[in-house]
Amino acid sequence: MPIHHPQQPQHLSEGGSAHSGVQQAEAALVEHYPRLVRLAYLVLPPSLGRHRRVLAAHGTVQRALPGPRTSPEQPAVPVLSRVPAQTRGAIPAGGADRQPASPAYVWMRLRVIRTALSYEQRPRWWPARLPAPAALRPTAPVVWGLRLFPRAGGVEELVLDRALSQVPGTVRAAFALQTLEALSEAEVRALLGQAGATDPALAVRAAGRLMAPDRAASEVLLRSGEFDPCTVQTRPSDLLRRRHRLRAVAAAAALCVAAGALVVVVRDGSTGVVDGGPAGQAASAPALDPAGLLRTAPEVWADTSRVDFTAWPARGDRTDDRELLGRALRVWGLTARTATVSTTPGTVAAPPVQPPRLLYAGEVDGAAVVLLHDGGVRLVRYAEPLSGRGEPALDFARTDDAGVTTGAAVVVSRGGDGARFLLAPWIAESSTRDLLAPDVPARALVVGRDGVTAAVPRPAPSGACDTWPALQLRSSERIVEKHAFLLTDLGDLAPAHLTYTPRPAEGAPPRQPREATGAPALLSWARTACSLRAVRGSGVQAVNNWEFAEQTLPETRASAGWLCTRADTWRGPGRVLVQFVQPGPSRTAPAAVVADRDDTALCSRFGQHILAGTHWKAPSGRWYVLAAGSRAVSRIEASGAARGTANGTTLAVRAPRNASVGLTARLRTGGTLAAVR
Q: How many CB atoms lie within 10 A of CB 476?
């Protein structure tokens, strides 16, 4: 029996029944509906937002079923009795997904991928401000009054989701087809070509860079609830806005019946919308009503599975001051006209569209401060001078997907003597330490009854780097997360979480980032803390020091370390500094930055291979080129002004000072790697 290519739709042979083909396609859709919807969800653009993306995924699959009559331009629906039911396109998970995919399923999968990709396809003449035509087409299902979104995953799922959001739909499709459908690269290229992709080979190569070294690990992540649009959570839409609209419609209908026509003179504030300034943005009136502010009960944080800013209670001695809260909300609604505004990269300063959550209202360092949390996405800090002189200030920071550590503190005030933080209610112990003094114990930090700390010295933004203050906090055992962790002020509202990844033992699996409170972690940060100046004010969520290699220096018995310092931002992209840690005159001598790469996946869950090099002068005065790679590197080669090879993860070759040398590495998996610069 001939074996048919899994991606080729099987056409009706003479005497075949189109109606039978449609029935079998419908059967394949019903049988594999969750599988197809997950594929569609992964391929659809994340810019739709999770609610619209869930609905679009279901609509994409439901529209894939053809009518009883197939148009001449489209491939005919397969009739299964005419072809062998075998293909490689089966999901390698347990249960029903392990059975061979029928030709009807293969054909339906092609239609789903083609439709999902169309959400990023726009004609040349299409206005850039508008979504793609496919995204504007109304389709079932339609949901009113509810917001749908998949269950939130962990840190690894979040990293993968952000990595996928930064690549085109064709790359997401290639990644999903290889991971979930177990298709080969050749099969994926063929399928994408049939789906209308312009460069399937490029998409497959880009998807390979997202793949974890162990494909099974990527599959586990894609099968998690984070990417399952069939198992969703629900939240109500803006209830206040909905009520106002219903009342307005009812009132308008009654007036029209009674009077026939009315001319209404609308005064300021009566329209339900507040002008948002020249940007043309608008805020709903209920969102700017201090009476509508959301407030969390004091003990919710100890009895919830969502330990983030939504669990913070309202604190401060002015939480009932409606005049202060009203001014803060009005200024927010008119940000372009009435306040000094600052935003971290990737954060919008738009007015709120739904009532925000009140976290704090009180007086700190000569200013009345209001701290608000907007829709799980932004922190907003309003401050007005108590003296009445000077403009109020609004600071915006993106804080979506905050957690126990990244949602543990917020800056409420900065002054000449340092910064004051409002601590999360789950913080049981607080102290400060100097990262450049790893042997000095942490010192207790005074915290007021309202959760505001005493002033904490700020890291110097320039000049001599003699000290680097950090917060050392410990969470309460009431959330079963009792552990210590470090935060440092990098100039944003939310301080950055510091972690550390040690080198794995020989033959052991890769290690995960851990809290930077142990002795090796503190020594690592003592050598690299001053490099954090490079990422100040860029909206950094967390910074990890990964010790990926150790190298014995030529002509000596001393060893040097290789670190990859990765700063992940709230908006997704990360910046990498590769640092060479050679023996120094002190345990805090700064490491040398030998490579700097922005907007990269290097040194993350989806960029685990790295190669770097530097010039180094031996005590004898001779110069060398040193190179080191991560654990998967099996061989390093130098070319150019100096040549040499070495098996393993390190290399040292004699070379003139500042010689131009190219470095490449071979991986145990068979791939190659170029040095990062």
A: 17
What letter would DSSP give residue 541? E
Residue 337 vs residues 294, 298, 332: alpha-carbon distances, Å:
26, 35, 10
Specify whether 230 is located in the same domain as 280: no
Separation of alpha carbons 502 and 440, rounded Å: 22
**Do residues 212 and 303 both lie within one domain?**
no
**Are the C-beta atoms of residues 374 and 355 closer than 8 Å to each other?**
no
Q: State how far the Cα of 56 lies from the Cα of 119, in Å rounded to an integer.
A: 10
Q: How far apart are CA 281 and CA 658, in angstroms?
A: 54
Query: pLDDT tier at 138 (50, 70, 90 boundaries)?
Result: low
Q: For 272-276, 307-311, 510-514, which range has the lowest pLDDT when averaged over its residues?
A: 272-276
Domain of 138, in residue numbers: 18-234
Residues 206 and 286 in one domain: no
Assess whether pLDDT exceeds 60 at residue 642.
yes
Provide mean pLDDT across the span 13-41: 75
pLDDT at res. 99: 47
User: Is 277 found in the same domain as 185?
Assistant: no
| 166 token code pair | 């930064």
The CA distance from 197 to 58, in Å, is 22
Is 119 found in the same domain as 32?
A: yes
How far apart, in whole angstroms, are the C-alpha atoms of residue 301 and residue 424? 9
Q: DSSP letter at 17? A: -
* Structure letter (DSSP) for residue 400: T
- The tokens describing 381, both together, are 């800090």
Asked whether residue 229 falls in the same domain as residue 289, the answer is no
pLDDT in tens, 48-97: 887 888 898 998 898 888 765 544 334 444 433 333 233 333 333 433 34
The contacts of residue 124 (CB under 8 Å, 6+ apart) are none
Query: CA-CA distance, 305 to 479, in Å (whole number)?
Result: 9
Q: Which of 370, 400, 430 is the last residue of a domain?
A: 400
Of 64-73, 535-544, 647-656, the range with the lowest mean pLDDT is 64-73
Cα 49 versus chain centre, distance: 13
- 283 plus 163 within the same structural domain: no
Residue-by-residue DSSP string for 61-100: HHHHS--SS--TTSPPPP-GGGS----S----SSGGGGSP
Domain count, the chain: 2
CB contact at 8 A, 468 and 440: no
396: its two tokens:
């915006």
pLDDT at 236 over 90: no
Cα(20)–Cα(542) distance, rounded to whole angstroms? Answer: 56
* Residue 621 in tokens: 């005065």
Task: Summarize the confidence of residues 375-385 as an average pLDDT.
Answer: 91
The amino acid at 601: A
Output the pLDDT for position 606. Answer: 84
Identify the weakest region by mean pLDDT among 386-395, 454-463, 647-656. Answer: 386-395
Of 348, 374, 400, which residue is a domain's last? 400
Identify whether residues 215 and 334 lie together within a single domain. no
Between 339 and 105, name the one with better pLDDT.
105
Among 487, 595, 598, which Cα is nearest to 538's?
598
Q: Rounded to whole angstroms, how far apart are CA atoms 173 and 114? A: 10
Between residues 392 and 210, which one has the greater pLDDT?
392
Domain assignment of residue 97, yes or no: yes
